[in-house]
Amino acid sequence: MTVPHQHRPAHGSGPRSATGPSRRNVLAGLAGLAALPLLAACSTEDPLAAQAGNADGKNYIAGDGSVLEVAAEDRGEPVQFTSTAFSGESVSSADWLGEPVVLNFWYAACAPCRVEAPDLQSLHEEWEPQGVRFVGVNVRDTAGTAEAFERNFGITYPSLEDRGGQVLLAMTDYVPPQAVPTTIVLDRQGRVSARILGVAERSTLKTLIATIVDEPADPADEQA
Questions:
Q1: DSSP code of 13?
Q2: pTM for the full model?
């Protein structure tokens, strides 16, 4: 099934506006995730917001699989954040400059996260030799719960512990993760190039990765 693509500039090519999401709002949304299906605030026009009001007992909001692609000239500034992997290693987005990166927001009890996990691991194995980095961002779990999920699904790429919302807050300046799972692709300059809201369909994510891998490593070459 062909997934529709939207092409529009990403948010946040400069400082956050006065109307942007505050750290308090993001953390409040994460605190409520344990009891409510909502991860981040949605507008009344958003179909995810409607689902949040009638979640049928689900403990997540299943995204609709929509894909947002951002043209290179509209990607704004690189995302910036620091975090800690479940391994205890400190991680900075600056460490990834020069490499395409796939960020996947997830948690263990999320049923769609389980659906997409084998495809994410398969794509990681396929693209790692070409320098593509996969990184999970776990918004809810303790280390033990996250590691059990990774063992169960054979996940070998690292995940960041983000119960405090630091990574989520950084990403809301650019492409807000409105549901779990959400997958974001960063280009070699660390800029948001694409987002999949909901389960990352394998062929769709592979195409988005290939687009970034095929782009010139030096942005100046795009103008040549």
A1: S
A2: 0.73
